[in-house]
Design goal:
This protein has about 120 residues and is mainly alpha-helical. Helix content is about 80%, strand content about 0%. The protein is built from 5 helices and no strands.
Length: about 120
Amino acid sequence: MEIKLAMLIMGSVLIILGLIKNMVPVKFNESIFGKIEGDAKNFAAAMRTNIGSMLIGIGVILFMNRNALDTNESKTLVFSIGVALSIFLLSIVLAYFRKFTKDIPIPPLVILGSLIVIAFISSI
C-alpha cells in the first residue's frame, strides 16, 4: 500500500474513532462493559474521552503529515505509530488475562488490528 494512502486511512479512522469516544463515552463504555453504576460511570467516561483525545491527536499527526514528509520519513512515522497501536492493542488484550474485563472486545481487535497491518505493510 502506498504510504500516503496508508496515512490518510489511518489518520481518518483514528480521528473518527476518537471523536466517537468523546461524543458518547458512556454509551461506548456500556457497549463494552455493560451498565456501569455510580461514580464509576463518570470515571470510566473521563478515561474514555482521554483515550479518544489521544487517538484524535495521533490521527491528526498522520493526516497532516501525509504530504509534508518524504517517503522514508513517512514510513518511519507510520511504522512507529504501528508499534504504538500494537502496544495499545496488547494492553486491551492483557486486561482480559489480568481479569480486569470479562471478555476481549471485538471492535478494538478488528479496528486496531487492521490499522496495525496497514501500518506495517505500508512501511516496508
